[in-house]
Specification:
The protein has 200 residues and is mostly helical. The protein has one domain. It is built from 7 helices and no strands. The longest helix has 55 residues. The protein is elongated and about 60 Å long.
Length: 200
């Protein structure tokens, strides 16, 4: 409120003594427009930052666990590119934690704006829906391509496994993401959750 209020007070002092009340109205409206623009910009930044943080956490943990710990034999079932139980657990925990962190970042930057938090949820759902469409229309994988040969490199296995990602993985992402983002925003403001408006 300090920036917006200062702008409006400065505008009113400039036009003080002027008999044209329309000048005062224009000055006040201009101050409100600047204030709204700042709030909107902060919300947009909060959504973008929250989503980027989520992506960084997911890719960082996935890459570290896969290349540093599990490798192809630990991440996939024997002889296939189907995700192992261990990898499913890693995926679920990482997706949820990343969403919680993203929700916290979004809520903090937006000053607990409910609109920003919900916009982040909508963004995740939209992008996941696009990914789901891509999975549904992808060419059928042959039986030979489903077989994971012995000695395949970690990079090649990662690539082929990504091309054969299960549909339930894609469906589960926005579900875990929504829960995580809302939980993260609630952690920041545990009593009331994300607010619809907050002072700047």
């Amino acid at each position: 409120m300090r920036i917006g209020a200062s702008s409006m007070r400065w505008t009113i002092r400039v036009v003080q003594g002027c008999t044209d009340t329309r000048s005062l109205e224009i000055g006040y409206a201009g101050g409100l427009s600047i204030l709204k623009g700042v709030r909107m910009g902060r919300k947009i930044l909060a959504v973008i930052a929250g989503y980027i943080v989520m992506g960084v956490v997911v890719m960082g943990v996935f890459s570290g666990v896969y290349f540093g710990l599990l490798g192809p034999d630990g991440a996939f079932n024997p002889g296939t590119f189907e995700p192992s139980l261990v990898w499913v657990v890693v995926w679920a925990i990482t997706s949820l934690v990343a969403a919680i962190v993203g929700g916290i970042v979004c809520a903090k930057i937006s000053k607990h704006s409910k609109g920003a938090v919900m916009s982040l949820v909508v963004l995740m759902i939209v992008l996941s829906s696009i990914q789901l469409v891509g999975v549904l229309v992808r060419p059928e994988v042959s039986e030979d391509e489903r077989v994971r040969e012995e000695g395949i490199s970690a990079v090649d296995a990662w690539t082929k496994g990504g091309q054969q990602i299960p549909i339930w993985f894609v469906i589960g992402n926005p579900i875990l993401g929504t829960l995580g983002v809302i939980l993260g925003a609630t952690i920041v403001c545990p009593k009331h959750g994300p607010k619809s408006q907050a002072p700047t």
